[in-house]
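Reopening this one. Same input as before:
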Amino acid sequence: MASEPKAITRDMVLESEALKPGYNWSRQIPAPGHSSVDFEERVNFPRLHDYRLARARKALQGSGLGAILCFDNNNIRYLTSTVIGEWSRDKMCRFALLTGNGEPWLWDFGSAAVHHRFYAPWLPKDHCLAGMVGLRGSVAPEVGLFKRAAGEIKAILKEQGVAGMPIGLDIAELPLVFALQEAGLEVRDGQQTMLDARQIKNVDEIVLLNMSAAMVDGVYQVIAEALKPGVRECDIVALANKTLYQMGSDDVEGINAIAGERCMPHPHNFTDRIIRPGDQAFFDIIQSFTGYRTCYYRTFNVGRATSAQRDAYKKAREWMDAAIALVKPGVTTDRIAKVWPKAEEFGFASEMEAFALQFGHGLGLALHERPIISRLVSFEKPMAIEEGMVFALETYCPAKDGHSAARIEEEVVVTGNGCRVITLFPAEELFVTNPY
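Same output, byte for byte:
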């Protein structure tokens, strides 16, 4: 006998609505002010909360898991819309649990749990708990905190009716894995499930990513005015940090500042090297506004540029433009990777050595989300580009002088029939600062 059709509930309708990304590609992507106002809708945070949670529930539903347990701060923020600061990023001191049948549970650092009961009304008050396990080994497993956490988690899974199903875990200390297993739980990889959820952004996420990029547009103007002989790489890093925090950044994760002979090979750092006339210099600004990150390179020449430096920049730009021209729904990542040069063609012994120089990576609450685009990985397992993805594309070209190099990065939002670039500081031609 056929089963009765399931009655449509208010919660089902709300979840269906929450899953709608809400794009309107006929208009520019807005970059409104940071404050809320009563005369226009900017970022709709309740809609953002609902969308992220609905995406996570949908991904969990199709994963074969009964629940997902997150120690990755980006996943915790995605599920619970809570954050307590950059300092917690590497402490593994907070965790969140989502089952297929209930609201998220959050264990936070001491009094932060009490704070959430006052200021995060979208979470049930009794789901905001104080909790801590090992602080990356600082508290020995023999103290019993891992066992205690595993017991609390198992009890919730039993109450939700999913204790007999595997639990997905994104990252964790090994003693917690052992404690969950000793509690009778089957532990599987949950990071893939969360990345499935996070790869398509709704309109609010795209606005936040665009606002974050707009902040870096302004920082590059400040850098262009300051970049002259006598300043140091670290001076530029300090200036960029100051400017970003004044503009409202909630986390400057890192800034690369590389000049002169340090440009080849790319060291991915900064030093106190003094900028000199004629240096080629490139910078990467990795920061976030309301959690949503940038990865945004620009290359400058100081005062003047040689033909070798201009040629390198032109080639990096050509590789970038070829990649952007391909971005649209349905195109696979291997096709984009294919337009970039092989590692041996620009001075490296292997694709592993050259990884992240000709590169694409998703952006969101984390610096590296889906899709990942590279000659190292994209040919074996191509991924289809989808509307609503946001990712960065990076190119790098060494100059024939043996030490200079050009580095360009653009962030793109995938639209219904193409993409839009949201990194707007001029990069069509090599930018010479304070020309002589």
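So the earlier flakiness isn't reproducible anymore. For the record, The longest strand covers residues 280-289.
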